[in-house]
Design brief:
Strand content: under 5%
Helix content: 55-70%
Shape: elongated
Distance between the termini: 194 Å
Length: 455
């Protein structure tokens, strides 16, 4: 029974060997990608820290390690170049960068291609890394190349870092290098493309003992050294790890320095917090003042609007009153002019009387005629006044005028023509002007003059 069970176990393991290999390869690829990305992040941090104290150039170990990591990332699962004979030759990441970064404005691809001292493809790729860092455009180059997914897919196999989610992290990490000023010599030994780049993981490896550990590192090393073999004697045991006073003093000094640094940082943060609180209180007070000003402006605007509305209403009322007064004045003026205008019959009679008087004065008939008595003179004066008064009736005025004319002088053809010419509307309108200019002599004045005394 035991042999059967062992056989069954061995058979099950043998049947799942294919799936185990696939899962193992996938796990290895994932671990490899994660390791490269993590180490790249550490290298970028060390470069930024080192740039605060010295200039980064080809002699800097931090830069050499970063360049090797970036070269390994860009060369991860890079496809080979197939020749005419069907053989696949190795390819450098420069072939991919040369095609994918053509769209970058003012790129250095042509300059790298025309370099005389750089011949191999790997050396051109390393020169491109240095030039891009000095131009502060390395992140832009990588981002542009990764956006061209079609070209990236053509140059890399499945599982490559540039085809995974880690590619976006890579572009973001390289963005911090734009704050560093690099100085490289493009004719140095770092451009030698005959040897592959090797990553140094030593600066990034650090073991920190857990606080749950029972024994210290020294005790563990002493235990391991004492239990090397049963035949070991006390003489073979190494000297115990004893810490002298200087070591304790150095430890205390380092702790004190850390404490002082922490205390200074705490004081700085407190001062910064106090400053921000003061700024916040000032901003709040200014905000209140601005709100009060806005409220006052709104109130003043409302009052001004109400005043303007009241003024508009008052002006409209005054305009209505003026229009009514103007209309009433026009009506009164029209009625007054209509009442003063005489009828057409009266116009004819008045025109005949006016023409008669003008004719007599023009021919000096007033000086040749002698009146028999004052009664006849007064009758003629009353006749002339009655003919000029438009309030009398038409028949009476016409009869009296004819009688006075017939008594004075008989009508002649010349007199009839003159009377006919003054029967128009214009002759009547000139009556007022003639009176004002003293063209007509008053009968009373004629009688009182010395030359008109009766004989």
């Amino acid at each position: 029974m035991a042999s059967r069970s062992l056989g069954g176990l061995s058979g099950s393991r043998g049947g799942g060997g294919g799936g185990g290999k696939k899962s193992l390869s996938a796990r290895n690829a994932a671990v490899e990608r994660r390791n490269l990305i993590t180490v790249c992040r550490f290298s970028v941090k060390t470069l930024i820290d080192r740039s605060c104290f010295e200039t980064i150039d080809d002699s800097s170990p931090e830069f050499n390690n970063f360049a090797a990591i970036l070269e390994q990332i860009l060369s991860h699962r890079l496809k080979g170049q197939v020749t005419w004979f069907g053989y696949e030759s190795p390819r450098s990441f420069w072939d991919y960068i040369r095609v994918a970064c053509r769209k970058v404005s003012q790129n250095c691809i042509c300059s790298i291609e025309n370099m005389e001292n750089v011949s191999s493809s790997r050396a051109k790729g390393r020169a491109w890394i240095r030039v891009a860092l000095m131009e502060k455009h390395l992140s832009e180059y990588i981002s542009t190349a990764l956006r061209d997914f079609k070209t990236t897919r053509r140059f890399y196999e499945d599982g490559a870092i540039v085809l995974g989610e880690e590619a976006n992290m890579l572009a973001g990490m390289l963005l911090g290098l734009n704050a560093i000023d690099f100085s490289f010599c493009l004719k140095g030994e770092g451009l030698d493309g005959s040897f592959p780049a090797v990553i140094d993981y030593t600066p990034y490896l650090k073991f920190t003992q857990s606080s749950d550990s029972i024994s210290s590192d020294e005790e563990e090393l002493r235990t391991l050294g004492s239990s090397g073999s049963e035949s070991s004697s006390p003489e073979n045991v190494g000297p115990p790890f004893i810490m002298d006073e200087n070591t304790w003093f150095n430890k205390c000094k380092r702790v004190k320095q850390k404490y002082q640094l922490t205390l200074e940082q705490k004081a700085y943060l407190e001062e910064l917090l106090r400053l921000r609180e003061n700024q916040l209180s000032e901003s709040v007070s200014q905000n209140k003042i601005l709100l009060q000003r806005i409220e006052d402006s709104d109130l003043a605007h409302k009052l001004e609007k109400e005043q303007l509305e009241y003024i508009i209403v008052e002006l409209q009322d005054q305009l209505t009153v003026l229009k009514n007064n103007d209309l009433r004045s026009r009506q009164e003026l029209t009625a007054h002019l209509t009442n003063q205008w005489p009828s057409p019959g009266a116009l004819d009679v008045n025109a005949v009387a006016l023409d008669t008087l003008l004719y007599r004065k023009h021919n000096k008939q007033w000086y040749e005629k002698s009146y028999q008595n004052l009664d006849q003179l007064s009758a003629e004066v009353s006749l002339s006044q009655t003919s000029l008064d438009p309030s009398q009736s038409q028949d009476d005025g016409k009869q009296d005028t004819l009688n006075s004319v017939s008594e004075g002088k008989e009508d002649t053809p010349s007199l009839l023509g003159l009377c006919g010419s003054l029967t128009s509307m214009a002759s009547y309108k000139s009556l007022t002007s003639l009176k004002s200019n003293d063209c007509l002599a008053s009968p009373t004045a004629e009688m009182t003059s010395p030359g008109l005394t009766p004989s």
